[in-house]
Design a protein that fits this description.
heterodimer; A: mainly alpha; two-stranded antiparallel ribbon; 78% helix; globular; B: mainly alpha
Chain lengths: 495, 218
Amino acid sequence: MSPLLWTLVVPVVTAALGVVPLPRRMKEANLVAGLAATFALSLATAREVLGGGVPRAFGEALRVDALSALVLVLSAFVGLLSGLYSVGYLRRNEERGLVSPPRRREFDALVPLFVFAMLLVSVSNNLGVLWIAVELTTLASVFLIAFHNRGTSLEAAWKFLVLGSLGLAFALLGTVLVYASARGSLGEGMSGLEWTRLVAAARELHPLTLKLGVVFALIGYGTKAGLAPMHTWKPDAYREAPSPAAVLMAVGMLNGAVYCLLRVHLIARAALGPEFSGDLLLALGLLSVVVATPFILIQWNLKRLLAYSSVEHVGIMALGLGLGAEAATFGALLHMTYHTLAKPLAFFSAGTLAQLHRSSDLDDIGSGTLARAPMASALFLLATLMLTGSPPFGLFFSEMIILGAGFRGPHVFAISVFLASLVLLFCGFFYQAGRVVLGTPPDSPTRARSEPERLDVGAATTLVTAAIAVLSAFYLPQGLLDLIHAAVKVVEGGP
Amino acid sequence: MAVTTDELVILCAAGMLVTAYLMVGQKALFVAIRLYAVQSLLLGVVAAAMASTDHRVHLFVSAALTIGLKGALIPWFLMRVIKRIGIHREIEPFVNIPSSLLICLGLTVVGYRVSTGLAEGDRGVTHHVIGVSLSMLLMGLFLMVSRRKAVTQILALLTVENAVFLVAFGATSGMPLVVELGISFDVIVAVLVLGVLVHRIVDRFDSMDVSRLSRLRG
């Protein structure tokens, strides 16, 4: 079997083993080893792509070009980080009796399954398979959100599932309409849904049907990506999901959904010209950045803060892709990469802070955590620096590239609004993070009852994540850069 | 006089629209579930009719799947859910029923108007089928935002799903079989997950009034 197939089989096997009642250490070893193997295999697949190959499976249903390979590697990377962090996270929660054995089995099965679905999204060349894979990510994450079985968890899971399914029903209608628009030229059967053939035959697609299909598909997958105004499930879901699962959703699912948006956009661009779907992406992206701003300023919960930051970042990516200039596309894909490297740090350090205070609400955590949990607090501050796009970290450069490309293009007004929102977001996020980490500790000891910080597996994982994120600002592996450049070529219609 | 396939398809599509209106127009949950079952059966007939005129074997499989899963299995499962939790009626919706019906009338007009722009959408079967499905889609969305019970929201979601499949059968003679099998599998799992979630919500809140799920804001 090719590395591509192994990349998909290994997480499924890991998930199957996760249900088997094993001793705790075996379970942990299974999860981490499975996800590490998946990451290694995804690297092997990407190497094949860089060498000029195009790995395929099941006819043309699965096909890995450079864009797919980039998303594949990023998703597998996040999967591995999440698996590593979950070891420490679950140990802490099990000590407090918060995790029952059935829940633990659910977790061990659903996390690798989620990773599998994310990887399947990134390698689907068939719009039907793509839809099925995205729906799988939704179903795998529902019980992860409901993991703690609190009233609020169930509320978040319900909202997520109803809104997500509705979004996916839209995406399905979009897929059906795209298929209908191609019926005259590509005929019926699997090939009528293949992305490569749809792009090649773009000129012969029925324009009005395609237009309607593209609108439905962009709204549908935009719901999954959490673009405003379809982002309302996001803060609830991120707050309730355990941190290792939240990071899978905030980075992996987000990248996958952006990938879906991009594939649909490319079909529309080839058939209808760059303005139609590009402007839609631009508008949704700008709206997301603008909408996130006030909610960050008034936020009362640490993880919801991260959720609105994720609404902002997906907005930036959509905006960059919508601009349509080659530099902006490069900026958006670079942004995706750096966001993937920085966001896990924020979730892990915030997750530790929340665990130490047994709540992620800012009121319960209280201000001045630096005195109580110096390491997690310092790392959270570092993550804040990265996520707000401060130099010298990567997101600063990607945002500058997008801004530069934007000001050279025709959408100067939109980019000005975008820039203003970025400045506001920078201030808002820093205000919140500064209040939590650096504020004066509360006088009454009851408000800030917390456990002492320990250097356990979870803390070690967070440190490693931080090291990778900092290092990436100064040095990206040549292979990854080549992959990004090759992905830009795919988007710009190269080989 | 023999009924032609085109007439049969249009008749069934119209029937589906009627079931959607009836669903909006009443409150008893078990009636709503039966209406959904009838709607799915009609969808199955559309698929079978298209299959027999166009001689597409895979559409017969789709028809059988639709009738078996959506016409029987899902309604049976939802009935079991409401029996176990013992809640049978929708309480007063956010929008009262006469105004709901009027709004849905407006939505139908919108759906028909949009459908005229589509491929072959300005005439014959395709026009009616796409018009009906877009109307049903909008009505499903409306049901979703205007009702409070979790089961009604599931039914609204499934109505939207049926509308999408009506386009798939009526306008494109069905998706490729592999894709359709995958989609059906996903829909079943989604309904199971929703059912389990309703159980957990009722256990937790002693109610499946989703308007109580409103602690998370901001």
